[in-house]
Amino acid sequence: MYISVKVHPKTSRLEVKRIGEKELEVWLTAPADRGKANAQLRAVLADFLGVSKSSIRIIKGEASRKKLIEVTG
Q: Among 21, 22, 62, 64, fewest CB within 10 Å belongs to which?
């Protein structure tokens, strides 16, 4: 399954909001520095979707706020 995600790094809250069937908006507390936000995004999405962190893979947008995520499992 593929999900489109809009990320807001370095905010004061940690939240996931569904904005469509396959679209999410995620607020992270980690900064977009040396992959910290991407690591936190994988953990937050894994928890939200009920899968392991290894099931979350960033397909597109590693250095962007708009990402395409592949979820397996």
A: 21
Q: Is the pLDDT of residue 6 over 90?
A: yes
Tens-digit pLDDT profile for residues 28-45: 999 999 999 999 999 999
Q: Token digits for 22?
A: 């396959």
pTM listed for this prediction: 0.95
Is residue 55 within 8 Å of 71, Cβ to Cβ? Answer: yes
Q: Residue 57 corresponds to which amino acid?
A: R
- CATH T-level fold of 2-71: Conserved Hypothetical Protein Mth637; Chain: A; (3.30.1200)
Phi/psi of residue 17, nearest 5 degrees: -125, 125
Residue 50 has pLDDT above 90, yes or no: yes
